[in-house]
Design a protein that fits this description.
Elements lengths: L7 E5 L4 H12 L3 E6 L8 H4 L7 E4 L5 H11 L3 E4 L6 H6 L1 H20 L6 E5 L27 H19 L3 E5 L2 E3 L9 H10 L5 E2 L7 E2 L1 E3 H17 L5 E4 L6 E2 H16 L8 E2 L13 H7 L7 H14 L1 H4 L2
Parallel strand pairs: 1-2, 1-4, 2-3, 4-5, 5-6, 6-11, 7-10, 8-13
Antiparallel strand pairs: 9-12
Helix pairs in contact: 1-8, 3-5, 5-6, 7-9, 9-11
């Protein structure tokens, strides 16, 4: 804990779902947290609802503005920068490919340059994605050295480009970096209702059964609690700052793959336990069978960072359901 006390940390994209939980963990460890985002966190954000917005320093900023980003890093002189800002929505990436590439690729370069040119270059932890690996065709867990494959959306290649750039800045310029790759995260505060957990809870709140659309639910994935994700960022940052491990990518995941159908059955079961209702545990299935297996090999993070997922899925789903029930009015649900 003392390693973070009074350290100035910049969280770019800190008003978002993952960023807010990272801020919560940093504040609990005594860090001085500066959130950089394009706009003030909205009233329904986790940062607001968890009472974190008043405990961080907020600075408006847009990573598309290279000059402003350089000036911001130069003025604040952080010891560490967490770069979480991105355009992460797959459907938007396909509709607006150039705009997605501008944010996810050029925005990353702007932050890298700001760090490289700083008087005292800070360490940088970058939020990459399991989308880096593309459309895999293996039933085994995916290791960090797996090559990117052809992708089904524009989002994935933008993360590949940014991921490679971050690691290259270590090799070329000596910038201290770490790359964190995730698959599917869930937990309190996710207001992106294109994701399976929040959209399914919204349906349950409306008295509707969750739906699996586009597959029959047999496709294999994993769910990682957002708090475990935040702790993964911190584990990577500590190694970059303290031991010189740099320019490497790390996978973070649940270590417990399951089918999409199993995930939703677990969510409905958690809902029934929390609410006392008796919703049919089988989700509505509208799609055909899809041969898809995608989960990450987390052995490297366990061995090199001492990190491992700590939130058991059922407990995490119960906690998530309880949070949405508590904040239903604030979320407009």
């Amino acid at each position: 804990m003392d390693a973070w006390k009074n350290r100035r940390v910049l969280v770019i994209g800190g008003a978002g779902f993952g960023g807010a939980h990272l801020c919560e963990q940093l504040l609990a460890r005594g860090a001085q947290v500066v959130v950089v985002d394009k706009a003030q966190p909205p009233p329904d954000s986790y940062l607001r609802l968890a009472g974190l917005a008043e405990r961080v320093a907020f600075t408006p900023g847009d990573i598309l503005d290279a000059t402003a980003t350089k000036l911001l890093v130069a003025r604040l002189e952080p010891e560490l920068v967490f770069l979480l800002a991105a355009q992460p929505i797959v459907t938007i990436s396909n509709a607006l490919p150039a705009e997605t590439a501008a944010v996810n690729v050029m925005g990353t370069y702007h932050v890298l340059e700001a760090c490289r040119l700083a008087r005292r270059p800070p360490g940088l932890v970058f939020a990459s994605s399991g989308a880096y690996y593309g459309a895999t065709n293996t039933e085994a867990a995916i290791p960090e050295d797996a090559p990117p494959l052809a992708a089904a959306n524009i989002y994935a290649p933008t993360k590949v480009a940014a991921d490679l750039a971050v690691r290259c800045y270590t090799r070329i310029y000596g910038l201290r970096t770490a790359v964190c790759r995730w698959m599917n995260t869930y937990g309190p505060g996710d207001t992106n209702f294109s994701r399976i957990v929040p959209v399914s809870i919204r349906r349950l709140l409306r008295g509707e059964r969750p739906v699996i659309d586009g597959t029959d639910g047999s496709n294999v994935l994993e769910l990682l609690h957002v708090r475990d994700m935040a702790e993964g960022y911190l584990a990577a940052a500590e190694r970059v700052a303290e031991t010189g491990v740099s320019g490497e990518a790390f996978n973070f995941g649940s270590g417990a793959p399951l089918s999409l159908r199993e995930a939703l059955v677990g969510l409905i079961r958690a809902w029934n336990e929390v609410t006392g209702e008796r919703v049919e545990e089988e989700p509505l299935i509208t799609g055909p069978k899809v041969n898809s297996v995608k989960y990450l090999d987390i052995a490297k993070a366990r061995e090199r960072l001492g990190w491992g997922p700590r939130t058991e899925l059922h407990a995490g789903l119960r906690e998530t359901v309880q949070w949405y029930l508590k904040h239903r009015a604030a979320l407009g649900l």
